[in-house]
Every structure is written in C-alpha cells, then in structure tokens.
Amino acid sequence: MTAQIIDGKAIAQSIRAEVAAEVANRTAAGKLKPTLATVLVGDRADSAAYVSSKGKACMELGMGSISEHLPADSTQAQVEEVVIRLNADPKVSGILVQLPMPAQIDEERVLSLLNIEKDVDGFSPVNIGRLAQKGRQPLFVPCTPYGCIYLLEQAGVKIEGANAVVLGRSNIVGLPAALLLISRNATVTVCHSRTRDLPGMVCQADILIAAIGKTEMVRGDWIKPGAAVIDVGINSVPDATKKSGYRLVGDVNFDEASQIAGWITPVPGGVGPMTIAMLMKNTLRAAQIQQP
Ligand code: NAP
C-alpha cells in the first residue's frame, strides 16, 4: 500500500484564506481588527523566530499584531504586569505567551493570569480543564493538537471507535491531542519514555499521533496497515546537499511508513503549517467572542 499524503500546507492555506475573508468582513463592518499580542521573554533564537512568524501571519491575513519583548532577566512581576495590561486592552483579541520562559519565571502562574477569552493558545488551566472534562467545551483548543485533529477530519479518517495511539504526553502536544481524540470517541493509549514495548503499542493503532522529538524513531514495521499517521516531530539531520547543511524530518520514518500506512503527513509540510493557521483561527474566534 502507498499512503495518501495529507497535505498540511494546502489545508493550512485554505484555513488562512477563510480567516482572512472573515477578518475583511468584520473590519468592513466597522468592528475592531482581530489582533494577536505575543509576549516573548528573553533571547532564544527559536522563540524569536516563532513569534516573528506569528506576527507575519497576522499581517498577511489582515489582522493586527502587537509584540511585547521583555529582557531575559525580567522578574515575575514585570511579566505578569504585561499580561494584565494586555488582558485589559480592548484592542487585543488574543494573547500568546511564548514558551519556554527563562527559569526564574513561573510559567504556570503567568498562564493562569490570562483572560480565558484571550487564551488563544488554549494553555490556561481553565481551557485545559474544560478540554479534559466530558461535556465541557474549551473556548480555545491548543493549536498543534487542534491542527492534528483537523488534518484527520479533512482526510476523512474515522476517529470514532478507532484505536488511537499518541506518542508523547507533553502539555502542548501529546496530552491535549489525547484529550481531543477521547472527546471524539476514539479509544486512546498514551505512550511516553517509560512505556514498555513501544512497537507493540503502535502496531495496534488505527490512528497514530507521534510527538516525541526523536528522529525517525517510528519504523515502517511498527505501523498497522492502513493506519492514519500524523507526524508532529520536527528534527533536523545533517544534509550536505542542502544550503543550510541540514534538513527536517519527523518522528516517523516517512519512506518506510508511507508504504504501509493509509494516510500520512510529511515533514515538513504536514502538521507544521497547521499550528499557525489554527492560531489565526483561534485569534479570529477570540475577536468574535469579544465582539459578536
Ligand atoms: P516534549 O515536551 O519534549 O515531550 C516529548 C514527549 O515524548 C514526552 O512525553 C516524552 O516522555 C516522550 N518521549 C521522549 N522520548 C521518548 C521515547 N524514546 N519513547 C517514548 N516516548 C518518548 O516535546 P513536545 O514539545 O511535545 O514536542 C514533540 C515534537 O513535536 C518535537 O519534535 C517538537 O519539535 C515537535 N513540535 C512540533 C510542532 C509543530 O507545529 N509541528 C509544535 C510543537 C512541537 P516523558 O513524558 O516520559 O518524558
């Protein structure tokens, strides 16, 4: 079998086009421009790059963006003050606190301050708590797992009743992905670094979401024939043929798995573009909640 490739880039592009059209409708109707505020503390190059790509996406979709950049030695009180100010600012629809923050900052306390109506990353305790409880709806679903589920739905993969295996239990990907699959009536197994017999777990999966950050660890012979494979991992490997000297690969060995799976996401071009698209969708939703 040769798997159907789930084209995250194209699907993300269609979400962005829908968001841009709705943003244009709202601004033409005299409503506030949906605006994302990012809070970056410190000088991590990867975090700065993520924040800048989020600002760029806002601009491309006709949305506003505000960037708050604090020095690496900021105090807890200084970071909290920024969040409190953005919470109170009616021009700000959504707030994204870029993680990780420097060690002296208590991230959980910062996230718990976020106005739930502006928590477009969906990481505040209230949003995660609602996601975890049966019959409750979070206002915002964390962007990367939201993107994973959206890709499965767009590809026409049946989630209800499926055996789903999630590799990884991080707060930002694995855990919320598992909660979303449960809410859609999959039977979910969550695996992590202490799981015994990972291949034995993975081979039972009709749906596999891999989010462990280990280069091509999942091999083709772990995959159940016909399974849907969503590869969240982003790992760089040396590649002398590239100008940059490296290329990106996932947590799944794509060449092997694509011979066995029914559907598979590539890396890059799978889950990656969905994360920002879902953030834009969540920011628009925040604006719609605040100003119907
Ligand atoms: P993380 O916080 O480091 O969590 C990794 C998870 O994988 C942990 O639960 C860990 O288990 C588990 N794990 C690590 N090694 C394992 C092994 N050998 N066997 C089984 N489980 C193992 O990572 P993350 O933030 O969730 O990110 C995961 C990957 O997704 C990374 O490659 C990251 O770059 C990528 N990512 C991509 C996007 C995107 O937009 N596409 C967004 C976010 C993250 P323990 O809990 O036991 O430690």
Structure description:
- The protein has 292 residues and is of the alpha/beta class.
- It has ten helices and eleven strands.
- The protein has helices at residues 8-28, 45-60, 76-88, 107-113, 125-132, 143-155, 174-183, 198-202, 254-257, 271-290, and strands at residues 4-5, 35-41, 64-70, 94-97, 163-167, 187-191, 207-210, 228-231, 235-238, 246-249, 263-264.
- Helix 2 links the parallel strand 2 (35-41) and strand 3.
- It is globular.
- The model has no long low-confidence stretch (mean pLDDT 97).
- The site of NADP nicotinamide-adenine-dinucleotide phosphate has 25 residues, from helix 10.
- NADP nicotinamide-adenine-dinucleotide phosphate binds at residues 144, 167-170, 172-174, 191-195, 198, 211-214, 232-235, 271-272, 275.
Shape category: globular
What is the typical, i.e. mean, pLDDT? 97
How large is the count of helical segments? 10
DSSP E strands, number: 11
Distance between the termini: 48 Å
Ligand set: NADP nicotinamide-adenine-dinucleotide phosphate
Q: If you compute it from the alpha carbons, what radius of gyration comes out, rounded to the nearest whole angstrom?
A: 19 Å
The largest sheet is: 6 strands, parallel
Give the DSSP E fraction (strand runs of 2 or more residues): 15-25%
Secondary-structure element order, N to C: EHEHEHEHHHEHEHEEEEHEH
Query: Could you list the spans in which at least 5 consecutive residues all have pLDDT below 50?
Result: none
Q: What is the topology, as strand order, of the major beta sheet?
A: 1-11-8-7-5-6
Structural class based on helices, strands and sheet pairing: alpha/beta
Share of residues in helices = 40-55%
